[in-house]
Amino acid sequence: MHIEHTAVIVDDYDTAIEFYVNALGFELIEDSPSLTNDGRPKRWVVVRPPGAATGLLLAKADGDRQQAAVGQQFAGRVGLFLRVDNFQAAHQDMVEHEVEFVSEPRTEPYGQVAVFLDMAGNKWDLLGPA
Questions:
Q1: Of 18, 59, 77, 122, which has the fewest beta carbons less than 10 angstroms from its beta carbon?
Q2: Are 91 and 126 a contacting pair, CB within 8 Å?
Q3: How many CA atoms lie within 13 A of 33 on its CB side?
Q4: Mean pLDDT, all residues of the chain
Q5: Which residue, 99, 87, 92, 102, is CA-closest to 21?
Q6: C-beta separation of 125 from 117 below 8 A
Q7: Is domain 71-130 in CATH 3.10.180.10, yes or no?
Q8: How far apart are CA 120 and CA 20, in angstroms?
Q9: Do the beta carbons of residue 126 and residue 87 sit within 8 Å?
């Protein structure tokens, strides 16, 4: 048993794909036409880090309630955690791709960490070895 995907609500599929694939280095696993539960067209878009089993389902906001959640899925807390083997290289690459960091890198008992924002404003931890 494993978690296959977790959803991230986005404003625009293509902007989100651009961020996750180009800025974070994720792979685009699937981008297929699909339907909402009530039969309207949408896309089934999945990205994930290379070699990972769990992906992000990029879900375009549908309606006012979902639109209000874009960038606020975790009520201002860090809600997603990206673990990398080489923290300095990953951090530098993300800075070069203009990823916005809201904290400077620091060392905690669990390893190196810096908080960054995705393209919608959700907070993530970039995590590396101690």
A1: 77
A2: yes
A3: 3
A4: 97
A5: 99
A6: no
A7: yes
A8: 11
A9: yes
Domains of the chain, by residue range, sit at 1-70, 71-130
Residue 7: closest CA among 39, 41, 42, 50: 42
Please name the amino acid found at residue 55: G
Using CA atoms, how far apart are residues 101 and 33, in angstroms rounded to an integer? 33
Name residue, tokens 């609500």: 9
Amino acid identity of residue 51, one-letter, is: G
1-70 classified as CATH 3.40.50.10420: no
Q: How far apart are CA 90 and CA 96, in angstroms?
A: 10
57's tokens: 């389902």
What's the pLDDT tens digit per position in 93-103?
999 999 999 99
What are the beta bridge partners of residue 123? Answer: 78, 117
Nearest alpha-carbon partner for 121 in 15, 29, 5, 4:
15
